[in-house]
Write a structure and sequence with these properties.
Layout lengths: L1 H20 L3 H5 L20 E2 L12 E8 L13 E3 L2 E6 L3 E6 L5 E6 L18 E3 L2 E5 L4 E6 L5 E6 L14 E3 L2 E4 L11 E5 L6 E6 L5 E5 L5 E6 L23 E4 L4 E5 L20 E6 L4 E7 L15 E5 L2 E7 L4 E6 L5 E6 L7 E4 L6 E3 L20 E3 L13 E3 L4 E7 L1 E7 L13 E7 L6 E6 L6 E7 L7 E4 L3 E5 L4 E6 L5 E6 L9 E5 L2 E8 L4 H5 L1 H6 L8 E7 L2
Parallel strand pairs: 1-34
Antiparallel strand pairs: 2-40, 3-4, 4-5, 5-6, 7-8, 8-9, 9-10, 11-12, 12-13, 13-14, 14-15, 15-16, 17-18, 18-19, 19-20, 21-22, 22-23, 23-24, 25-26, 27-30, 28-29, 29-32, 30-31, 32-33, 34-35, 35-36, 36-37, 38-39, 39-40
Bound molecules: calcium ion (CA) (2 copies).
One calcium ion binds next to loops.
Length: 579
């Protein structure tokens, strides 16, 4: 009798092990509430970057020490903007140049590495960075600088499927972490500086098969695919030529380069769209939808449920890509977004209605405020860079000093929201730019700006400032200034802590209520990536990727010169409490 039962027990045992290893839709939906793993970019699809863990707190943090560190190796360093994901005792972390590593999460031992073969001629605008991977079933899925999606077996690193998003030679690239929402793999595109057409695509995460595509430039047709791969039209985004003159919408930019968030309660995925192309706004009179907007897409249909435009007719490269983080306030589901244009917006997550808007940086020149009734900015017309055709030679429009700079009051570095304090923790920067317009015509695969610029400092003492922002009152509750511009993301915890990295190399933590810095550690290169935390075998771990780079050294003008002493790197650091 026992001999007969044994094989049955073994089978059951193996099945439950496999079930534990596979990442399910339910596990992704619960990610924010399950501190034993980090399955998604944002530590939950809402992107709050909040963990309930409290073993590490202001009292215990002086015992926080390195557990291990791992080098990405090779001669390739440059910017490391990746957020690790952790599942089943393994960490999956991407590096610059479209590389990904699987590591033992407690020891740092390398399990496997995959290096994507990149062609010559890729055109990433803002360094050879990658922001992380998504987990689904037994797969780890990430995007590459030549605009491909690669799905690998979590255990072996073998390629299971690989799909091309678009032509890299036309200016398309991809660097965001994919988002899993309601069983679909959602991805955006990069390339707004090359006149690409922004879009969000949904695929079957197990196969890479297309499900729907939704363009983020008004006038373009959306599509859907059935199970057999048959493609049919799924409605135009908006109304052709309503907010775009002539043919400019055909190369209209609005790249969805930072990816998105998803809220199961609303059934909506929230993607931000970047600048309209070209930068010279005088060429494209109108609002230029859906550039510089938050776009809420019904993931079941691939239709735009609502949009809110942060910067209509953008003339400053104020990409509206920043993460829209949903949260509960006064019995309502709302979303917060700290925009590149210097304003923090609160919208109703279900309808898009504007609830609040206020500046989170000290100097804003392009608008005096946001009208809460109409939802539109009060522009300062004389602070828009001038029309080159208005001048005597027609070559250079009037230059203006604008703040924030195009690198933004906030850029790619994701903020965090704590349901304990009700505050958003925003990595902000105070800087401006000289900006002017020039004539430009579209040429496939060439930069499509029609503008020139130099980034300038505003204060000698600091550029970066971590700010705790109250979305109800618009007040900055505390701030921690930083000499270099902040370019990493934020983590907040039930242990009343806020963690963030600095270009000067520190991972540091502050009391979430007061902003008092209670801990810091020098990682050896600049931190431009968001930290995460998880629990394993009763111990709380904190991880962050280190490696200076990204857009600041490439495009930062006077600020790039100011911080040119910073060294490159490429490693992941993991910390836990000393016993
Ligand atoms: Ca989790
Ligand atoms: Ca841009």
């Amino acid at each position: 009798m026992r001999l007969k039962l044994l094989p049955l027990l073994l089978t059951v045992g193996l099945a439950s092990l496999t079930a534990q290893a596979a990442v399910t839709d339910q596990m992704i939906a619960d990610d924010a509430k399950t501190p034993g793993d980090v399955l998604s970019w944002g530590m939950g699809t809402q992107g709050q970057r909040y963990s309930p863990l409290k073993q590490i707190n202001p009292k215990s943090i002086d015992k926080l020490v390195p557990a291990w560190s791992f080098s990405f190796g090779g001669e390739k360093q440059r910017g490391q903007e990746s957020q690790p994901v952790i599942h089943n005792g393994k960490m999956f972390v991407t590096g610059s140049y479209s590389r990904i590593y699987a590591l033992d999460a407690t020891t740092g031992k390398k399990l496997w590495k995959y290096e994507h073969r990149l062609p010559d001629g890729i055109m990433p605008c803002c360094d050879v960075i990658n922001r992380g991977a998504a987990l689904y079933d037994n797969l780890v899925i990430f995007m590459t600088l030549d605009a491909q999606i690669v799905a690998l077996d979590q255990n072996t690193g073998d390629v299971v499927w690989k799909e091309k998003i678009d032509n890299y030679a036309d200016g398309y690239s991809a660097s965001a972490a994919p988002l899993i929402a309601n069983g679909l793999l959602l991805t955006g595109v990069s390339g707004g500086e090359f006149g690409v057409v922004g879009r969000v695509e949904a695929r079957n995460p197990k196969t890479g098969q297309m499900v729907w595509s939704r363009p983020t430039v008004e006038g373009h047709m959306g599509y859907k695919w059935d199970d057999k791969g048959n493609k049919t039209e799924n409605g135009i985004s908006g109304t052709t030529n309503k907010t775009w003159p002539g043919d400019l919408w055909k190369t209209g930019g609005a790249a969805t380069w930072l990816g998105g968030t998803y809220d199961a309660k609303t059934g909506l995925a929230y993607f931000g769209a970047g600048n309209p192309a070209p930068w010279n706004s005088h060429l494209r009179k109108g609002d230029n939808l859906f550039s510089c907007s938050t776009i809420a897409i019904d993931v079941k249909t691939g239709q735009i449920k609502w949009h809110y435009q942060n910067t209509p007719n953008d003339g400053w490269d104020f990409d509206g890509v920043n993460e829209f983080i949903t949260y509960d306030q006064d019995g309502r589901r709302l979303g917060g977004k700290a925009d590149r244009n210097g304003f923090f917006y609160v919208n109703d997550a279900t309808t898009g209605q504007l609830v609040n808007a206020f500046p989170f940086v000290k100097k804003v020149t392009w608008a005096t405020g946001i009208d809460l009734k109409t939802g539109r900015p009060n522009f300062v017309p004389e602070n828009r860079p001038g029309d080159p055709t208005a001048g005597s030679d027609g070559k250079k429009g009037q230059s203006v000093f604008a703040a924030p700079s195009f690198l933004g009051g906030k850029n790619q570095m994701p903020m965090a929201y704590s349901p304990d304090t009700g505050l958003f923790y925003v990595p902000a920067n105070e800087w401006g730019m000289e900006i002017w317009n020039e004539p430009i015509t579209y040429k496939k695969g060439a930069a499509y700006l029609g503008a020139g610029f130099t980034i300038k400092t505003i204060n000698d003492e600091y550029i970066g400032a971590m700010r705790a922002v109250d979305p109800k009152t618009g007040k900055i509750v505390w701030e921690a200034k930083n000499n270099a511009p902040l370019w990493g993301g934020v983590l907040t915890t039930g242990g009343n802590l806020v963690f963030w990295g600095t270009p000067e190399g520190y991972l540091q933590a502050a009391d979430a209520k007061t902003g008092k810095i209670v801990w810091k550690f020098q990682t050896g290169s600049g931190v431009v990536a968001p930290p995460v935390t998880w629990e394993q075998n009763g111990e709380q771990f904190v991880a962050v990727v280190s490696g200076w780079g990204g857009a600041v050294p490439l495009w930062g003008g006077d600020v790039a010169k100011k911080v040119n002493y910073l060294e490159q790197g490429g490693s992941v650091w993991v910390f836990k409490l000393m016993k």
